[in-house]
Amino acid sequence: MSDKKMIPIGPFHPLLEEPEFFKFYVEGERVVDADVRIGYNHRGIEKLAESKTYDMDVFLVERICGICSTSHPFAFVQAAEDISGIEIPERAKFIRTIIGELERIHSHLLWVGLAGHFIGYNTVFMWAWKYREPVLDVFEAISGNRNHYGMFKVGGVRRDIKEADIPALLSALDEIEKFCSMLTKAVMDDPVLQARTKGIGILKKQDALDLCVVGPVARASGVAIDIRKDLPYAAYDRVDFEKIVLPDGDVFSKAAVRLLETIESVKIIRQCLKEMPVGPIEAEVREVGIGEGIGQHEAPRGEVIHYVRSNNSNYPERHKIRAPSFMNVPSFKKTVIGEMIADAALITAGVDPCYCCTERMAVVDQATDKILLSGNELVRLCQEKTEKLRKCF
Amino acid sequence: MNLTDKIKEKFGEKVGIFEKSRRRLYVTVSREDAKEMVRFLFRDLKARFSIATGIDIRPGVEILYHLAFDELGVMVSVRVLVEKPELKMDSFTDFMPAVDWIEREIHEMLGVDFVGHPNLKRLLLPDDWPEGEHPYRKNTFESEKENDER
Amino acid sequence: MVNLFKWGLKKSLWVFHLGASACNNCDIEILDLLTPKFDVERFGIVLVGSPRHADVLLVSGIVNRQSIERFRRVYDQVPNPKLVVAIGACACSANMFRDSYNFVKPLDQIIPVDVYVPGCPPKPEAMIAGVVKALQKIR
What we know:
heterotrimer, A: alpha+beta, Cytochrome-c3 Hydrogenase, chain B, five-stranded antiparallel β-sheet, three-stranded antiparallel β-sheet, globular, disordered N terminus, B: alpha/beta, Beta Polymerase, domain 2, 29% helix
């Protein structure tokens, strides 16, 4: 009993982007229990939203998370529009879709880079982040900023994509697609990466259903949900793409789902750029109406859902925000218990926890609560295991 | 048989159903029937629990359980009023593990006690946040109560 | 002796990134500095994993009630001489979270800040310029 040690990852661990506190309890080399303490990132945004107008709230919710910064405005404006069924112009729907998919590419590439670092493939980290840059350049060309694009508003979008820019955007997309395909092939065919990630951190399908996980975490465990296809919104019902579902539920499947999705995203953006009709980009919205509305969006991490209740004023009476990680992070307990401590960092990263979306890793002695192995050491253990495996090939 | 009919068949007069649109169904039940309703939707009809919303209104805390039927393309929101001052509600963690964290959040933010929850401790608020202070409560009701009493 | 030390400090900067309660955007832009497009390691700026090895503290995000104590502790762990650079609008002031019930105080009322880099998020070029300004303060 006194042998149980807890390993904290975080808070303020430089490679786990946000201040989070994952606690792992181990016996020897194996994880026997796990807990997570969030709250380091709690900024009281839901309450803040009630004291700001709908227009200001779009900017507020953008800053819930920097990586999926468009996902929250996407869901929020749809919730506000759902209250009294506001229809937005066709061109706005396509532009929203383009921005949403560009973000998916950038977020998945970011994750691949970080996971690569955890495993010890620093070249993957450098490459993935280097090839993220063209995506950020496209964002800057369209919206004026690399992150926090400020493109959404209730009733449409705030900026147009100029017809003259589209050829340049299409050729940038070709480059991005080339890299995504190359990276996907490199990762999925690499024998060391397969040995390192296959069979690790398996989330069984029934657990995925009981815990109601969403996004790539669900699709990697055989649960075929994708809001873009199930409850279509924006221009998603006008474009052709695949729902990527894999059955095994391990870290490899999670990585494969994300990589294959980037290629689907490129397809979607290309179709949107070609088929986008000419026309206005915003509907004139006088008031949101009285009632309640729900907006959903398939963010890179899964379903984002916003609920808005409106009385007769310009301020929401209640604004509920639920990010995908709120449903996904609890599943880490099921996937990490029973696994080796050297894999703990990787399994936790496999959930792609955007802690700042949710709110917000260590071996600790269960009796005394003292830290025995820091987050840095956990990542080092993860990287060392890869080295050992590599020598077998 | 569509979703509305299935619900009416099982619960009859005990529910109020509002079909806002093809995608949005709002179902109102009493606090006593809520568990059976959510269990029916989640276990029998295989919905996916998306999230629960708690709102402070004058008579109590209104909780909406949002359950998604992905294959049908419908979102069902089950509306329950948890009355003041008791603010007691059954926990659904025994049949729906996904509700664990949101019950903790509604508990600390609005003060609802979820009876039967295995671990109803703080989730988001800092450790030194004062007990009994619930940030999502609307304090205006206190002053309205004073006005009523005058 | 002091001048020699200051010269040594100017040669390569070891930087520790402290994300308080951030949306993470500034954080990934800081990590972006390491990647081939910006590659600050050419200038000798190294991101270290422990505050005890750092010369410069890069801070992003607002300070909320849960993190304020750990925050002060990390600041004390950085050995002197040290510089603090506030990255992003949240660290410079409070951005839009000023009225939040969980917000404590602006960063510079908790620890002394030497350079402010505003923006939401600031571009990586602006961050590099901020660190260079911090360098000039040592002179």
